[in-house]
Amino acid sequence: VKSFETTGIKVSCEQTLSFYGKKYEATGDLKYASKLARDLKSCPSEPLYLKSVLALEESESDNTLKSAWNVKAGEVYLLEGNMDSAVYRFEKGIELDAQNVELANQLNLSLAKSFLAKKQFAKAGKYAAKVDTKESYSILGDAYANSFQVCNAGDELKARLVYIAAYNQYKKAGDTAKMN
Predict the structure, then answer these.
(1) Long-range pairs for 116-123 at CB < 8 Å and ≥24 separation?
(2) By the 8 A CB rule, do 36 and 48 touch?
(3) What count of other Cβ atoms lies within 10 Å of the Cβ of residue 162?
(4) What is the DSSP letter of 132?
(5) Residues 152/164, Cβ–Cβ less than 8 Å
(6) pLDDT, tens digit (0-9, with 9 covering 90-100), for 56-105
(7) 153: buried, middle or exposed (CB in 10 Å: 19+, 13-18, 0-12)?
(8) Could you give the dihedral angle defined by the CA atoms of residues 136, 141, 143 and 147, in that order, rounded to the nearest 10 degrees?
(9) Whole-Å CA distances, 16 to 45, 74, 86, 117
(10) CB-CB contact of 35 with 27 (8 Å)
């Protein structure tokens, strides 16, 4: 019997789960975990996808590959809305592959956007501040601008300072539309 990857046949998540999922569940063999992680990446909400990714991360000795497995797990947690686990996995991925600045920037921006969407402005700012790009400055501006109600507390001077801080970030980003 040829494996799915050598035949060029596209298989559904259900077919993958039926074939490799049963074998992995029965044996715990990492070769099946690897196949599940590869073939289920288009359906990350499948619990067995995350289980296989975590098993592969735990068994990996190479830090770069271990980092990649942590990132995949973090992405699943982010999709599920489990921010604490996503942050843990992303930060672990950054730590394990410390030389990969591009990865760190990508993950920090992803966390910043997610926290901004959840109206956790201080956390959004924390992760956006770790990156030096126009996009990160725009996110910082949004965090400042959206935190107006929290920081304002009826103090007109504080309110103006919040808007000045937002304006300055938008200026760094070159985001003239948000500067108005």
Answers:
(1) 116/142, 116/143, 116/146, 118/83, 119/146, 121/146, 121/147, 121/150, 122/147
(2) yes
(3) 20
(4) -
(5) no
(6) 999 999 999 999 999 999 999 999 999 999 999 999 999 999 999 999 99
(7) exposed
(8) 170
(9) 14, 22, 25, 34
(10) no
